[in-house]
Amino acid sequence: xxxxxxxxxxxxxxxxVLWWRLRPSSSPPPAPGAEPHGVAGLAAWAPSPPTSPVSxxxxxxxxxxxxxxxxxxxxxxxxxxxxxxxxVRFDDARGLGGRMLRWRGFAAATLGHVxxxxxxxxxxxxxxxxxxxxxxxxxxxxxxxxYLAGLxxxxxxxxxxxxxxxxxxxxxxxx
Length: 175
Ligand SMILES: [Zn+2]
Description:
By secondary structure, the protein is α+β, with helices and mostly antiparallel strands. It has one domain. It is built from 8 helices and 4 strands; from the N terminus they run ααααββαββααα. It has a 4-stranded mixed sheet with strand order 1-2-4-3, with helices on both faces. Strand 1 (82-84) and strand 2 (87-90) form a beta hairpin.
């Protein structure tokens, strides 16, 4: 009984921390060399899409638990799905999915091979979300705890997974 109460308190505390951290606000970037090597590497890594049929099948299978959650959320978005770029998109999401996005001020969210968008995503937003698709293909179910750990530690915008997605969406700096 006591254990269940501790579990419930931990779940509520986790939800509150995530709710507080999951905001599309900007915080200053870390000073060069001020963060662990692996974190900086993760923030600079936008994995490439799988090319062979075997690696593609492996990527879809590995990311399938996330995709299943995305399809469930998409089904609650009361908007028809369409397949584009190898992902299932729910544009102009309403229902639970759309409300969750708008509450927190997000334009879109990606779960595995599913992109749920508040409106019709433009090219830059799609480039950003497709990086999350590639991250999910590489990390599979591990992506969720890793992403949440990054969120709690660094906040939304400085989460290394987000920094990689923003960098890829913005493209290489003009030289
Ligand atoms: Zn993102």
